[in-house]
Design goal:
Helices cover 49% and strands 12% of the residues. The chain contains 17 helices and 13 strands. The strands form five sheets. Strands 7-6-5-8-9 form a five-stranded parallel β-sheet, sandwiched between helices.
Length: 477
């Protein structure tokens, strides 16, 4: 077995509840959990005359208090998108987000400490723990930012194919988007319509196994323009049994980009690929999450909903309607009325023609622009979730007029309706507001990734990272 196979064990992907968790991100999470947890003990030790081994204070043991602080701060960091493997942030952006994360964590921590005084830290210990934890996290981030782009965390990837399809890999140009792999080169294949090497074009006088061993390859991506009668089955099988991963281009791009490329997949690929599991247990857990999350969201959001209603009345008059009902397509194509705070002028579509919302749309009121920017116009959809018409997480529901048009022109568009539409979703995290057919195609590719890989863990991650979208105004229009 080649030495690269052993190295692959350290750069493998952890399959957790049907979602890939990158090894560097897992290591970062564990390191930061340790720093936050340890910061409380160190702070308590300094406050106890330098006894760093203290585990018991007069008011009780430290470990449960440290555990609460660690969990809350960790969730806040996750919500700010700081565990996204392909996140491209400058150091000052990381500092800002980390600061906001600590600020966000202070609210639930204050609530916990107020309601459960036995779990509260003294002010002196809490302040010192924050300073130590923040300094430790920033130090780890600096180390992570300098090492994650190094080859130690990248899979050495060989592309079999140097034609038009392989160009899709070459188009992944951002350094942050290439953190998961390092191209060692491409091997031209029979059937390639043209030569467009994703990296250095390698001489094919040797067998694939010899090339892979020589280049310490850990995976081979099959990106041929035409496989029919041209696929080197024996060579790929030899590589596979020698511990070198072999995967097709669509699966590789799904893993690296977080979306399903509809121009590369076929119905057969969708049928035989993993995912698309909707079990009774999954339906039950998703509904329980929707009900629990919906009630909690309503308790938290009602003041903002009240302020939104007041803003609409002040801006448009006391007799102006606050809510807006619009027909949308739900699960399995069923039509329902989505609830939103009205953000456009009355009679915005008086002629009956459905239109995409555009940038600087003149139909949007002044109050409506603020509501859309903050995503407060979506808050009434909590009632759609509680009624079972929507989910907290899923593809955004579209209007029937647009769905009919998009289904005719975009392949696999109807597959997004196999799960309930959501208030937030994977596409909302990964792509800006959609206002045309091109945007609909891009968002569909992310929606298909969610439909294929959805799980309880992915739902929770999406819900938490929606805070990043709101705070940083991503995709709002």
């Amino acid at each position: 077995m080649p030495a690269s196979s052993h190295r692959a064990n350290w750069v493998m992907f952890f399959k957790l509840l049907h979602n890939h968790l990158r090894l560097p991100v897992l290591l970062l999470m564990l390191a930061e959990l340790g720093v936050i947890y340890g910061a409380v003990f160190v702070a308590a030790g300094f406050r106890s005359h330098g006894d760093l081994a203290v585990f018991e204070m007069p008011e009780g043991p430290i470990w449960p208090k440290a555990a609460i602080v660690t969990l809350v701060v960790f969730v806040a960091i996750l919500a700010l998108g700081l565990y996204q493997f392909h996140q491209r942030l400058y150091f000052k952006d990381t500092l800002a987000r980390m600061g906001v994360a600590f600020l966000l964590a202070s609210f639930p921590l204050t609530a916990v400490w107020y309601s459960l005084p036995e779990l509260a830290l003294s002010r002196g210990i809490a302040q010192l723990a924050i300073v130590i934890a923040f300094a430790g996290l920033i130090s780890i981030r600096l180390f992570f930012m300098r090492t994650v782009d190094e080859n130690i965390f990248r899979r050495r990837t060989l592309v079999y194919g140097a034609g038009a399809k392989s160009a899709a890999i070459h188009q992944i140009r951002r350094r942050a988007d290439r953190r998961g792999f390092r191209l060692v080169g491409s091997v031209s294949a029979r059937g390639d319509a043209s030569v467009f090497a994703s990296g250095r074009l390698l001489d094919h006088n040797k067998s694939l196994l010899d090339i892979a061993v020589e280049k310490h390859v850990e995976e081979i991506v099959v990106a041929m323009d035409d496989r029919r009668g041209n696929l080197p089955v024996d060579e790929l099988l030899t590589c596979k049994v020698r511990g070198i991963d072999v995967l097709d281009l669509a699966a590789f791009l799904e893993r690296e980009t977080g979306k399903v490329r509809i121009d590369l997949v076929t119905p057969g690929w969708l049928i035989f690929s993993s995912g698309f599991r909707i079990t009774p247990i999954r339906r039950t857990t998703k509904r329980m999450l929707d009900l629990a999350g919906g009630v909690l969201a309503l308790l938290v959001a009602w003041p903002f909903m009240l302020l939104s209603a007041i803003a609409i009345k002040v801006g448009d008059g006391l007799h102006a309607p606050v809510l807006y009902r619009q027909r949308r397509v739900g699960i399995h194509g069923e039509i329902f009325n989505v609830l939103k705070f009205r953000s456009m002028i009355e009679g915005a579509e008086a002629d009956g023609e459905a239109r995409w919302a555009e940038e600087n749309d003149l139909r949007i009121t002044r109050a409506g622009a603020a509501l859309r920017k903050l995503r407060f116009d979506e808050l009434p959809q909590i009632f759609n979730v509680l009624r079972g018409e929507m989910s907290l997480v899923g593809p955004r529901p579209e209007r029937p007029e647009f769905v009919s048009e998009l289904t005719r022109s975009i392949p696999f568009y109807n597959e997004r309706h196999t799960v309930k539409p959501g208030i937030t979703g994977w596409a909302q995290l990964k792509y800006q507001y959609g206002s045309c057919q091109h945007d609909a195609i891009e968002k569909l590719q992310y929606d298909l990734y969610y439909v294929k890989n959805h799980s309880l863990l992915l739902d929770v991650v999406i819900m938490l990272q929606t805070a990043e979208v709101i705070l940083w105004g991503k995709g709002a229009r």
